[in-house]
Every structure is written in C-alpha cells, then in structure tokens.
Amino acid sequence: MESLQIRRLDEIPSPEEFASQIEQKNVPAVFSGCAKEWKAFSKWNVSNGGLDYLQVSIVNTENEEKSQLECLRDDIETPAFLDSKTLASVNLWMNNAKSRSSTHYDPHHNLLCIISGCKQVVLWPPSASPFLYPLPVYGESSNHSAIPLENTNFSLYPRAKSIDKYSRKVTLHAGDALFIPEGWFHQVDSEDLTIAVNFWWQSDMMSSMPEHMDAYYLRRILKRLTDKEMDRMLSMPSTSKVNHMIGASGQSSNVNAGCCDEELNLNHQEVGGKEKLVPGFSLRELEPHELRSLHDLVSSVHEKINRQPAGNIPADQSVCREEDVKKFVKANLYDLEDDPIANTVWNLEPHVFQIVFLNMAHNFPRTLEAFVLHALSPVGVEVLTRKFEQMDQRIAPDERSQFYQKFYSVFDNQFAAMDALLNGKESFACQAFNNVLVQYLGINLNGPKPSLQ
Description:
Blueprint: E1 7-9, H1 15-23, E2 29-31, H2 39-43, H3 50-53, E3 87-95, E4 99-100, E5 109-116, E6 118-124, H4 129-132, H5 163-166, E7 168-173, E8 177-180, E9 185-190, E10 194-201, H6 204-207, H7 214-233, H8 260-265, H9 288-306, H10 340-346, H11 350-363, H12 365-375, H13 378-392, H14 397-408, H15 414-441
Helix pairs in contact: 7-15, 9-10, 9-11, 9-12, 10-13, 11-12, 11-13, 11-14, 13-15
C-alpha cells in the first residue's frame, strides 16, 4: 500500500509530467493552490457577495440544449496539465450546509477544485472493493457502496471492519485541487458554504482499449482476481489450528509423540499381519515429527470415513474401497482452518511431505486411496496439489518420477484418482470465483438471478 500514498504537490505539473508521473500511476494527488488564479476564486467568494453573483437562470426557454451555467465558464480555467485531454464535462458543486456524499467511484478521471470553503475526502483504491460491498454491477447504482459508513452494521457487512486500513484521507482548502483516478471509491464531506468545480475526462487506457478486446481483458482480470482470492483462502492466522506444532529442533511438541508406533500398528494390517521392514519405508526409520504427521493423517482419514452414514467399516479392518463408502458431506469444503486433514498437509515442509506420503503409499495404501477419493475436501485437494508443486521444485526429476509412480500405484483406478483431484481443484477455484463476483461486482450466484431480457 506504500505505492498508493497520496502526494501533495506545491507546484503545478506540466502536461507531460502529469501524464507520465501522476495520471499513469492511477493514484490520487493534491495540487495546492491550483485554482487560486481563477476569476472564480474572487468572484464566487461567499464572504464577498459570491452567492448573489451565482444566481443564474435554471431554465433557458430560448435554447433548452444550452448549458445553463455556461455564463460561468469564463470564470474558471482548465489547468494547463489538462490541455491535451478531451473533457467529458465540467460541473459546479455548491452546498449551504454541511453535507456528505455517498461512497462511490466514477468511470472517469476527476480533478476536484475547491473555490470556497473546505472539503474532507476519503478515498479507497479499487482493490479495496471487497470491503466496501459494491452494489451489483448490473444495477442502476453499480458504482456505489452498499454500506452506510457512518453507521455500519458489521454483522451484515463483516468485511467492512477493514475499510479504515485501506482508506486515504485528504483535506482540501480553497484553491486546492485533487486528482481522483477512475475507479477509486471516495466520500466527500463538505463544510458550510462550499463551492467547487470538477473536470471529468476519460482515461487514456479506456479510450485506447479496442472494443473487440473487452472480453479478453475481462477474463484476464477475473482470472487474476480469482487467483488472488484462492491465495487468500489458503492464508492462515498465526495461531493455526494444527494438531501439533514442530519446533525449531524439528521435534513434535506433542508429549505423546513416542506412542505413534503402537497407535499405528493396528492400521498396519493393510500390508499384512505384521510390519514389513522394507528399507526406506519402515515406520521405525521416521523422525518423531514425521511419524506424528503420518499418524494424524491416517487417523483423520479413518475418523472421517467411519463418520460416513453408510460406512460401517469393521474396527479391525482398514480397507476402504469406493463401493464401501458413500461420499462424505463436509460442512467446511473450502475453509482451511476448520479442515484438520487439509490443515495437517498444509503445515508439512516439502521434504517431510515427501517422506510422509511415500510411507503412507507403502504402509497404508488403502488409506491413501480413501484419502484422495473420499476424505479430501476441495480445499484439501488444493492444498495437496500445491504441496506437490512445492516438492517438485526441490527434488530431482528421477526422484519426482519415483514419487508419483509410488503414489498412484495404490489406486485400483488411477484415472478416478486424477479425476477426484481435478474436480476438487475446479470446485475450489469455482468457489474463489464466486467470492470475487460477490466482493468486486456485488453479484451473488446463490441469490436471486437478474432477468436476462
């Protein structure tokens, strides 16, 4: 957010400086004294008969299309740095008592010039849209926020608790001008008897964008926002809800870590009546924290499968096949913090992840099969595949090939496993996309649908 700090400039920039150093960055800027040389600065002064001077006809019966305030045009000057711009409109703003605008953004660049009085402006960048609850993009007031900032109901708008973190506040006095880039939400508080003029013009980016590219850029923008939302959904608070914490020594802080061998022996029936001591896959060769993580995953899978309505798997049998289990309906499909399986995997270092899953594939193949086919939620699938990527970046190609050969060897149907992972990732991404629609466009796909006619 450092790059979004509002600059206050005492010297008026040249058109080239404004275009390259200010407008192109799309960040607000204040120009002190920008309007002090205008005729309006003295003629419109409310303490010197300015209100009498501004009594103009509201209706012109001779020419209804003529701007009704065009007679004031000579009193103001277009700042030199806007000379090359094609202005969309020039507007007069007056109030005779304290007032507050709604929180909104404009589809044009805006230069707000204060002639008399004082205004306080609060601004938020477009990236803060989720916290301002924009109204639906298809509505008449799509550029407005749904929340009343002076009396916000945080039970209805919980994300609004963060709006102050993203806000930028400036105070404008007579003669000052504020550049408000397109898309920046802003709310304006005006003191008694304030007069202002603003200039609107279309940004170079929008005016030069070919219409046939709209769909492409829309898809790119939505994809980028969806990717950011997926990362946000996987962010964890510092007090993560994990079953154990690994200290700097690499040892589990769980005092019962030494009991893992006994607890896992029962599940070892998957590979026969007794433990098979294959080099590299013996449970006794694991470090305590590795064994603890393996135990947590195996136990969590069995607990989840046994909770299934039609599970009924005998206590002394750990074989979990697709025909034995119905799909588990999970309450928190997309919440990392409340998913113990996804949480455990997320907290594994890449090397530990590799060791744990190789050992699960060798010692508990049916549990690993159930883990992928039945126990993973969408957030769990996203976590698992991201851990695959982290591991892939740290091991050699031949070691990578051996890992995946061992991992997928446990499945009777490898295509079913791959489908489960692909479907889980797509479900997680779809939820992130829905979140983006709600947060940035005000569209809730689970709510009432607008008419297509």
